[in-house]
């Protein structure tokens, strides 16, 4: 009997998880001109009625919003869908959610599907939050009794109890996000689709959402769309990078997909001058001893680097105070650099000055960062010149993490008590 029980347990453990989403050869085209689009629609109706099933190529003014996309998603898996604006992410999600039909390919969705595609989507604005909970639950296929058992948990999770009987049209964007996510997550659907809406919520609620996602993920398949790569790396175990409707990367190596996403920011454009009073001019900025690739300096994690800035003085009488700030690709401020021992001595017009600042042991996590250069009379006072992206660096490491710093550490002792 014991052997049979063990065999049954092993069978349960090794049994493959259920496939909930199957996408095969999915393509969708749109027309850039409304009048032409309507005419093509009439032609398609006529040809479809006459039994013309031949595969059509693009016609004038048409383009592929998504082209030949295939993937499967099992219970317990989270697919990160990334790409820049216009990559086709929203179109793909609308097809998955049944809002639009594909021109080619097919989608198979199994179980209950819940989607947070647009802020407030699925809510009736004139109904209260409570009434919308019941409406959304019914759409997902839950009975009145099942919704009754979850409604209090939904209200508590959304943190809007005092406003729950107020019309949704009077809710703030944050309240709509909290209610929408609470309904979608607490109902524990088989497939959950999330499109960028968490970017609207406050930090405390976002962390609460991630904790909930961790809880429901083993029994759910999630499609997660975001421009925040830390969020993607936090919860996704596979990734698709889209560019103009075409898959550029697909696989379980989330880190590699994120690297390719960041590389799309590479540009040969000059730094954008945010402010200048014509007192000085930044002539050149570089990392000493490192050859850039597409104007990005690749730095190994933990290395020490020398940053050099050459300025041309035009009418200052003394050396300006230099400060630096580091921003990530989401344009979040990561760190300030305030070099010590700056000698603000007297200078003459037309002098060229080269500043060298050393950054020791860079423990920024993997990714691309931009360094902002600011020259002023003193720290935070009377800015002469400021430019974003004076220097762009890419920190290289074998681990992709979602926090901004990866500190140097080692294990010195492990004990069992």
UniProtKB/TrEMBL annotation:
> Which residue stretches, if any, does this entry annotate as coiled coil?
none
| Pfam families cross-referenced by the UniProt entry | ABC_tran
Any keyword Nucleotide-binding? yes
Q: Out of the domains of life, which is the source?
A: Bacteria
Q: Which residues form the ABC transporter domain?
A: 40-269
Give GO MF terms, alphabetically: ABC-type transporter activity; ATP binding; ATP hydrolysis activity
Q: Which UniProt keywords apply?
A: ATP-binding, Nucleotide-binding, Transport
The answer to whether UniProt assigns keyword Transport to this entry is yes
The entry's protein name is: ABC transporter ATP-binding protein
Name the source organism.
Psychroflexus aurantiacus
């Amino acid at each position: 009997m014991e052997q049979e029980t063990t065999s049954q347990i092993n069978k349960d453990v090794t049994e493959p998880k259920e496939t909930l989403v199957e996408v095969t050869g999915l393509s969708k085209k749109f027309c850039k001109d409304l009048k032409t689009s309507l005419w093509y629609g009439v032609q398609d109706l006529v040809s479809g009625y006459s039994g013309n099933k031949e595969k059509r190529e693009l016609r004038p003014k048409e383009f592929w919003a998504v082209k030949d996309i295939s993937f499967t998603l099992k219970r317990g898996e989270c697919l990160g869908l990334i790409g820049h604006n216009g990559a086709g992410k929203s179109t793909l999600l609308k097809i998955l959610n049944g809002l639009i039909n594909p021109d080619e390919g097919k989608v198979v969705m199994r179980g209950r599907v819940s989607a947070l595609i647009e802020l407030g989507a699925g809510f009736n604005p004139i109904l209260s939050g409570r009434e919308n909970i019941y409406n959304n639950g019914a759409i997902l296929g839950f009975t009145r009794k099942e919704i009754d058992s979850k409604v209090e948990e939904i209200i508590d999770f959304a943190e809007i109890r005092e406003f729950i009987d107020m019309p949704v049209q009077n809710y703030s964007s944050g309240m709509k996000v909290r209610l929408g996510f609470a309904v979608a997550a607490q109902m524990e659907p088989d497939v959950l689709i999330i499109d960028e809406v968490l970017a609207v919520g406050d930090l405390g609620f976002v962390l609460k959402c991630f904790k909930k996602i961790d809880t429901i993920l083993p029994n759910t398949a999630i499609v997660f769309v975001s421009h925040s790569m830390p969020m993607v790396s936090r919860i996704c175990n596979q990734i698709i990078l889209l560019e103009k409707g075409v898959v550029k990367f697909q696989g379980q190596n989330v880190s590699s997909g994120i690297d390719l996403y960041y590389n799309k920011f590479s540009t040969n454009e000059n730094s954008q001058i945010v402010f200048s009073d014509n007192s000085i001019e930044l002539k050149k900025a570089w990392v000493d001893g490192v050859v850039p690739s597409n104007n990005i300096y690749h730095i190994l994690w933990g290395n020490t680097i020398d940053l050099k800035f050459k300025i041309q003085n035009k009418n200052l009488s003394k050396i300006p105070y230099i400060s630096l700030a580091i921003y990530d690709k989401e344009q979040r401020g990561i760190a300030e650099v305030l070099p010590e021992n700056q000698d603000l001595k007297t200078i003459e017009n037309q002098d060229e000055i080269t500043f060298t600042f050393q950054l020791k042991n860079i423990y920024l996590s993997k990714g691309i960062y931009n360094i902002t250069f600011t020259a002023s009379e003193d720290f935070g006072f009377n800015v002469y010149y400021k430019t974003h992206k004076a220097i762009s660096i890419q920190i290289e490491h074998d681990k992709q993490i979602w926090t901004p710093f990866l500190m140097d550490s080692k294990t010195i002792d492990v004990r069992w008590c």
